[in-house]
């Protein structure tokens, strides 16, 4: 269970770095939001689900 928890934390950190870089870049480019809206919304939804999953896994690990 600890390995799943650590892997989900790692994935959350990597996804957070991706979103920190990608959102401003796509928002600043001329057609960036229109072309990449679905990718950013899916990544944001996955980030939200990961936060909730990590919260649930936290009770199993501790």
UniProtKB/TrEMBL annotation:
It is a multi-pass membrane protein. It holds the Pfam family Ycf9. Its main location: plastid. One of its GO terms (biological process) is photosynthesis. It is found in: Plastid, Chloroplast thylakoid membrane. Gene3D superfamilies: Photosystem II PsbZ, reaction centre. Keywords: Chloroplast, Membrane, Photosynthesis, Photosystem II, Plastid, Reaction center, Signal, Thylakoid, Transmembrane, Transmembrane helix. The keyword Transcription regulation does not apply. Belongs to the PsbZ family. May control the interaction of photosystem II (PSII) cores with the light-harvesting antenna, regulates electron flow through the 2 photosystem reaction centers. PSII is a light-driven water plastoquinone oxidoreductase, using light energy to abstract electrons from H(2)O, generating a proton gradient subsequently used for ATP formation. PSII is composed of 1 copy each of membrane proteins PsbA, PsbB, PsbC, PsbD, PsbE, PsbF, PsbH, PsbI, PsbJ, PsbK, PsbL, PsbM, PsbT, PsbY, PsbZ, Psb30/Ycf12, at least 3 peripheral proteins of the oxygen-evolving complex and a large number of cofactors. It forms dimeric complexes. This is Photosystem II reaction center protein Z.
């Amino acid at each position: 269970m600890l390995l799943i928890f650590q892997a989900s934390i790692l994935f959350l950190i990597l996804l957070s770095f991706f979103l920190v870089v990608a959102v401003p870049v796509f928002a600043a480019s001329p057609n960036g939001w229109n072309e990449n809206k679905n990718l950013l919304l899916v990544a944001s939804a996955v980030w939200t689900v990961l936060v909730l999953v990590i919260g649930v896994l936290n009770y199993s690990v501790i």
